[in-house]
Design goal:
Helix content: 40-55%
Pfam families: MS_channel_1st, MS_channel_2nd
Strand content: 15-25%
Protein name: Mechanosensitive ion channel
Membrane topology: Multi-pass membrane protein
Subcellular location: Cell membrane
Largest sheet: 5 strands, antiparallel
GO molecular function, one term: mechanosensitive monoatomic ion channel activity
Shape: elongated
Distance between the termini: 99 Å
Radius of gyration: 31 Å
Number of strands: 8
Order of helices and strands: HHHHHHEEEEHEHEHEEH
Length: 261
């Protein structure tokens, strides 16, 4: 116990300096991260964790450099010289990481993509959740998260989608020849909108399109636009069930036409 007490008395100044520097670094990372986010928003630069992560690395590297000599007795110049000698080996071992960091900055500063974008890349469709210094996280419709290295994302073809085009759900049906198409459209929209009310995108109306003719009648489709958190098959099922109960659907040959009453 006496040995511990004596050691603490001998190194009290170093311990206090270490605690102060670490506390200042923690506070600085939070404050500067908040300021950085505000500056990025004002400059219309997409906000992602890559900027905050790089800032944290810089602050903590500076904090460690400050305490090396007085606390641990290590000369920063000697350490930097050693790092310089091993820099080539380190850079070779971190080629992928460096490529991902540079690609991440290119994606963000070039505004190629940003958090919240709906994209399709390499067969994966989803919303960009975050761009870190190594990878981009894409949230798929089913809740799965796809992690793609920034270097891959920067060299692959990428398609930006609108919510309407990605959530497009066609539900085909047939009406009897001679039916009043305006009346069929009105009634189809009425039943489908009620059935898919909680599944559809806001401000994107459901549509009815008449597409051609068959021996059984006039072909048509209801076009529903599903929200991103709803599977297209779920919206299609709800619309099909609503239409199946409607008397204007041509279920078999011989059904009579639907006219305005």
């Amino acid at each position: 116990m006496d040995v511990i007490t004596e050691w603490l008395q001998q190194h009290t100044g170093r311990i206090i300096l270490l605690v102060i520097v670490m506390a200042v670094a923690m506070i600085a990372t939070r404050v500067l991260a908040r300021i950085t986010n505000e500056v990025l928003e004002r400059a219309s630069i997409p906000n992602a964790s890559i900027f905050a992560n790089i800032l944290r690395v810089i602050i903590w590297a500076a904090a460690i450099t400050i305490v090396l000599q007085p606390v641990f007795g290590v000369n920063p110049t000697t350490l930097l010289a050693a790092l310089g000698v091993g820099g080539v080996a380190i850079s070779l071992g971190m080629q992928d990481t460096i490529a991902n960091i540079i690609s991440g900055f290119g994606l963000m500063l070039g505004k190629v993509i940003q958090p919240g974008d709906l994209v399709r890349i390499q067969g994966t469709t989803g919303v960009v959740k975050d761009i870190t210094w190594r990878q981009t996280v894409i949230l798929e419709r089913g809740g799965n998260q796809m992690v793609i290295p920034n270097s891959v994302l920067n060299t692959s073809s990428l398609e930006k989608l609108t919510q309407a085009s990605e959530g497009y759900v066609p539900v085909p049906f047939t009406v009897a020849a001679g039916s009043d198409l305006k009346e069929v459209e009105r009634r189809a929209l009425d039943v489908v909108n009620k059935a898919t009310e909680s599944m559809r995108l806001e401000n994107v109306p459901t549509l009815v399109k008449f597409t051609g003719f068959t021996p059984y009648g006039i072909t048509a489709e209801v076009q529903v636009y599903a929200r991103f958190d709803v599977f297209p098959s779920t919206a299609a099922d709800a619309a099909a069930r609503a239409l199946a109960g409607a008397d204007f659907i041509e279920q078999h040959a011989g059904a009579g036409p639907i006219t305005t009453e």
